[in-house]
């Protein structure tokens, strides 16, 4: 089964999506990520989508739902590396990504997570 790697960085988890997301893979990522938040007692989650050219409404909802689940598990989520076309698509679809903070890149995302943890 195809899986997206989740790396631990201190009290944060880093997810770098390097493949085209399909619905089943997104659901597997959601399950894996929530399990790792609990197992690693992570306080932050950084999701890098810089390799994605397209995000459809299902994937957008999955990101938003995953962030909501992370928040319930006491972890904050920052989405980084969003391409302009992806941002345009999300706005056109009317998706607001509640509870998801965004940053331009991984470095700024880590800074944002550290600031919100203080």
Automatic annotation (TrEMBL):
One Pfam family recorded for the sequence:
STAS
Q: Which residues form the STAS domain?
A: 2-113
Superkingdom = Bacteria
Listed name of the protein = STAS domain-containing protein
**Source organism:** Pseudoduganella dura
């Amino acid at each position: 089964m195809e899986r997206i790697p989740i790396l631990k960085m201190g009290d944060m988890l880093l997810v770098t999506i390097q493949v085209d997301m399909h619905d089943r893979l997104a659901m597997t990522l959601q399950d894996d990520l929530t399990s790792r938040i609990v197992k690693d007692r992570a306080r932050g989650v950084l999701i890098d989508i810089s390799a994605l050219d397209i995000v459809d409404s299902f994937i957008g909802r999955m990101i938003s739902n995953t962030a909501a689940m992370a928040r319930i598990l006491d972890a904050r989520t920052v989405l980084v590396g969003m391409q302009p076309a992806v941002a345009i698509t999300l706005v056109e679809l009317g998706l607001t990504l509640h509870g998801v903070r965004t940053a331009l890149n991984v470095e700024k995302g880590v800074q944002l997570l550290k600031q919100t943890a203080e």
